[in-house]
Amino acid sequence: MTHWTFKVFVDERGYDLFDEWKDLPPAAEAQIDVRINLLKVSKTWARPYAGKIRNCRHIWEIRVRHNRVQYRPLGYYGPGIGVFTLLIGAIEKDRKFIPKAAPEIAENRRIKISTDEKRYTRDYRPKTGINKKVIK
């Protein structure tokens, strides 16, 4: 039974900015997709699979490790009940994000979604095997 629906942030041009997370090894992309599929059917989320970002009221991270790299898709619960929206892809190294401003970027995107949900979100599609950049 699915408990969660995943969405992604899209910009004003309709580009899925989560999909544009560059240069991920295919095996890392697959692990991210597997983790998201696991979370879809989990009633509650906790470490080691997901966790709240410190000093960010609304932003959470999905935690995926592949070949000693800590991949951190960042997102938030919403818009709506039973929805989690992916806002930006980041890497965590030495307890710091790459890009450094990833939590702030995520929060700014969350605020944009609150102004116009239909314009700034679409349903999540697994990255593995899909290379679609423009959503129309």
Outline:
With 136 residues, the protein is α+β, with helices and mostly antiparallel strands.
Overview of the molecule:
The protein has 136 residues and is an alpha+beta fold. It has one domain (5-123). It is 24% helix and 29% strand. The chain has helices spanning 26-40, 102-115, 117-120; strands at residues 5-9, 50-52, 60-62, 64-66, 69-77, 83-93, 96-98, 121-123. Strands 1, 2, 3, 4, 5, 6, 7 and 8 form an 8-stranded mixed beta sheet that branches. The termini are far apart. The model is unreliable at 130-136 (pLDDT under 50).
**How many H/I helices?**
3
| Strand segment tally | 8
Order of helices and strands: EHEEEEEEHHE
Span between termini: 30 Å
Question: What percent of residues are in strands?
Answer: 25-35%
Helix content: 10-25%
Label the structural class: alpha+beta
Report the uncertain regions.
130-136
Count of the domains = 1
Overall pLDDT score:
89
From the alpha carbons, calculate the radius of gyration and give it in angstroms: 14 Å
| Largest sheet data | 8 strands, mixed
Structure keywords:
disordered C terminus; 24% helix; globular; 3 helices; 136 residues; eight-stranded mixed beta sheet; alpha+beta; 29% strand
